[in-house]
Design a protein that fits this description.
The complex is a heterotetramer, with two copies of chain A (275 residues) and two copies of chain B (249 residues). In chain A, the strands form two sheets. In chain A, strands 1, 2, 3, 4, 5, 9, 10, 11, 12 and 13 form a ten-stranded mixed β-sheet that branches. Chain A has nine helices and 13 strands. In chain A, helix 2 links the parallel strand 2 and strand 3. Chain B has 249 residues and is α/β, with parallel strands linked by helices. Chain B has one domain: Glutaconate Coenzyme A-transferase (3-Layer(aba) Sandwich), CATH 3.40.1080. In chain B, the strands form four sheets. Chain B has a six-stranded mixed β-sheet with strand order 3-8-10-11-12-13, sandwiched between helices. A three-stranded mixed β-sheet of chain B has the order 5-4-9, with no helix packed on it. In chain B, strands 1-2 form a two-stranded parallel sheet. The longest helix of chain B has 16 residues. In chain B, 53% of the residues are buried. Classes of the chains: A alpha/beta (275), B alpha/beta (249). Chains A and D meet through helix 7 of A and helix 3 of D.
């Protein structure tokens, strides 16, 4: 477990081509690291939204960092469609792996349990299944008559990446009720977390926080990054910056507008960070 | 289509739809809905009140109206356990067999129009007994003969485990039930100020017409009073913008 | 959700023949309800230890309440073997379903997820598998060559029964780090919990306790029973009563000794409770 | 077999076994053990110290030495993920093929003697790379030709997923390695005051003898000092009774 000085150093630990599991927009998204990945020109990322994504996938796709997008949905929520995602789909510049929320979560849970697959009800007769040759259908061996059921292959991401409210100096990370972050950390080979605050007290000695704390056993690195999820919101900490995202969606309606947004937000921030 | 501010009825379209949906939730022990579904959410809160509290309402991601603390898996596990009696789904396209499309128009994956994605539909449509399809826009663009992409099918082959599925379709023009045996929608009521012809003109799929086809009942004054008072206050918690626009609270 | 007045009323809600999932001795065992079940003469219980049991299974077996014992282990821990359990095995008065800890937990997680089965590594070549015709072996459909793997049928218990530190008046139950209790409540059709204390505050409004709280959605009934796990220990509350259990094991070495223990502990307690 | 209080060595049998096991844990990143396994637990804590902290130790159900907060599933999931390098198992019977029996003597289910049960062995023996079998009693009752019940097999058929398995067997008489290729134990060292003949007389299964068979190295004075000082203090947390009996702390 390494305590990194900033979001940029965490981004540097994530290589080109990594399969990265990321949480939904409201669960705690490592946006500062996302901007750093873009600044550093990361390429061919395979994003696994657990189970959906928004501004994070949108920006990474717009900046050309993504080759595969696996998700049950990419949306800017209240702000509407994700413009770069939609453009990338239409021009086939990313490979899509559309799925449904519980399938992605179940597959991550299979990864967490070290089992090669997990069954799930539903999906039969959908085009989601039709376009996912990696999902298999078998006859339920416990069924009394024909009972087809989908088997999902386990997902073991190279990296889980998210933002959380709190960590201690040992690298234990408190996630509160956003329990899916625990699943991500268990399933992934490496887990990097930006936190709003690193505290001196041991989260394990805190009877109330310990049950919602990811043990450092699963954590490869943390960095204290204030407002690490901005402009998205962070549970327990701050709300989404709606005006910023509204402005983004307006600007990114054209590729030129997206380039302008990036020029004035991502590069500049990095320049500031380098000063 | 009368706008709420120019209607000659003393209720808005939102209030009408809330009452229509609320009636469809009768007898349900637990209804869940998304945080961006204010009309179904309001309907659920109204039904909770009318049931004397025996209907439980979970509004996802709402601070005070959700039960989740086991991460995003819990909603789906809970539905799989049979603990969710009703849920709402929508579709960029909905077809006459109850298939819904949340993915895009045209051929997959290079769509002519791409939407957000299928979210939980590919699972919840199979396991929640009473799925209410809700889409305000009722045009040949949304109500199509055959969807371009099946996020979740309305019907399943015999043998497929399917305790759930479509129960009704509510739009700005009317309310359909879903006939699982026949595998299609049946027009039950037409909202005030709309006609069968208008619905037929704006629907891309065939549907049957209920024997007792009638006008959608308008909300009773007591119901409106309840809605605009206590329910509006409750709705303002998960859906502040909606409550402000519709009821000014 | 019903708030029951005492352990006896909870026992009354559990019928003869029920399939009851119970936690391990150190996780919070509803011992007061266990004594009440014995007093009330409950019969043909199918106990599912999640994943092991001790004094609870031992007493219920000794009192003739159990017909099926499914478990990865029945032990009095530091105090040694469970004497009634051992006698019942030797005389075949209970049906044994021996298993291994993660198999029982995985099968309960399958119940929790509403899936009919779940795969698990291990077990192949063991006699556990040999004597469990309900466990099936298939060839992993995702394996590149022959890759046998065990499938476990889901467990959906009729009842989950345990003791926890805290509940609120709405029936939300705080379990802290004994997260397996959450799995039990999710998987079971009905869940009854004795708690050390019922508080007026809403556990859901408590940011620190909410993440480790079982929502009342899953809870059929609670009762405030002080020392509800005694003579076992209760996490966060009190330790095991070792002298009591040592004395028990000594006494129960013979059926007569067990009868004496029961006469002076179980019936008497009930007589007191009825007064 | 000398008792610790009458031994002419300046170390107890417990200390010897702790040092033997500790050596078997070299290079392991994470070792887990049960709360009722004080000798393996002490060995793990000693190895942690000797590794300069690079060996992580998890003692199940201990307040300060465990990492679990996802319920009882976490240990098993964690092992399945490959995050546990070494674990300890025992057996009422252990046979020459590394099969262990934690269930009972005689025919299942009506045993002549019944033990507690298989616990996690039917899984952990398959997935933890370095499983150390530890059983102090070394007699023909415990070290048998063939176990009466296989809680977990020492060997698996080709094709069976098995990253884990037996690595060594430590008893009060000696230390065996396990040869996966040959499928049996190999006697590596004999504890001081014991003989090959004694081990052969008390072992119900055949085993090979290491080329360099030697006496188990006695604990170095510095190691004993460490053990009786810092490690004894650390052991007292998860294993208070043991620390008191062995070191009086």
């Amino acid at each position: 477990m390494i305590i990194y000085p900033d979001a940029e150093s965490i981004a540097q630990a994530i290589p080109d081509g990594a399969q990265i599991a990321i949480p939904a927009s409201r669960s705690g998204v490592a946006m500062a690291v996302t901007r750093a990945l873009i600044s550093q020109g990361r390429r061919n990322l395979h994003l696994i939204a657990a189970p959906t994504s928004g501004f994070q996938a949108e920006m990474l796709i717009g900046a050309g960092c993504v080759s595969i997008m696996e998700s049950a949905g990419v949306t800017m929520d209240e702000q509407g469609q994700a413009p770069c995602f939609v453009r990338a789909v239409k021009t086939s510049t990313i490979e899509l792996r559309d799925s449904t929320c519980p399938a992605i979560i179940s597959a991550l849970q299979a990864g967490e349990k070290g089992i090669p697959f997990i069954p799930m009800r539903g999906l039969l007769g959908s085009d989601l299944l039709r376009y996912r040759p990696d999902y298999k259908v078998i006859d339920n061996p416990f069924g009394e008559e024909d009972d087809p059921i989908v088997l999902l292959p386990a997902i073991v991401p190279d990296v889980a990446l998210f933002n959380a409210p709190l960590a201690d100096r040992n690298g234990n990370v408190w996630v509160g009720s956003t329990r899916e972050l625990m699943t991500l950390a268990h399933a992934a080979k490496k887990t990097y977390v930006t936190v709003e605050k690193i505290i001196d007290d041991d989260l394990y000695k805190d009877k109330l926080r310990a049950p919602a704390t990811i043990p450092n056993l699963y954590i490869s690195g943390i960095a204290e990054v204030e407002k690490g999820a901005w402009p998205l919101g962070q549970p327990y900490e701050y709300n989404i910056d709606e005006p910023h995202l509204e402005n983004y969606v307006r600007q990114a309606a054209t590729p030129e507008g997206f380039a302008e947004y990036m020029a004035s937000n991502v590069t500049m921030e990095n320049r500031n960070a380098a000063e | 289509m009368p706008q709420s501010n120019e209607t000659h009825y003393d209720f808005s379209q939102e209030e009408l739809l809330i009452c229509v949906i609320s009636r469809l939730l009768k007898g349900i022990e637990h209804v869940a809905c998304g945080v961006s579904s204010p009309i179904p959410g309001s309907a659920a809160l109204l039904q909770r009140k009318l049931s004397g509290g025996s209907t439980r309402v979970t509004i996802l991601l709402s601070e005070n109206l959700q039960f989740l603390n086991d991460g995003v898996t819990e909603l789906f596990d809970c539905a799989a356990q049979g603990r969710i009696g009703a849920f709402f789904l929508s579709g960029g396209q909905i077809d006459g067999k109850g298939n819904i499309n949340l993915v895009g128009v045209g051929d997959y994956p290079q769509h002519k129009a791409r939407w957000s994605g299928s979210f939980g539909s590919g699972f919840l449509y199979f396991v929640v007994p009473r799925v209410i399809l809700f889409r305000e826009e009722h045009t040949r663009r949304t109500m199509v003969e055959t969807v371009d992409f099946i996020s979740a099918p309305g019907l399943s082959e015999p043998g497929v485990y399917r305790p759930g599925g479509p129960y009704a379709l509510v739009t700005s023009l009317g309310h359909f039930s879903f006939d699982k045996k026949r595998g299609g929608f049946c027009l039950e009521t037409i909202h005030p100020d709309h006609s069968l012809e208008e619905i037929q003109d704006n629907t891309g799929f065939d549907f049957t017409i209920a024997d007792g086809l009638k006008e959608t009942p308008v909300p009773e004054p007591e119901l409106l009073e309840l809605l605009r008072g206590q329910i509006a206050e409750e709705v303002a918690d998960p859906y502040p913008k909606f409550a402000k626009v519709v009821w000014g609270v």
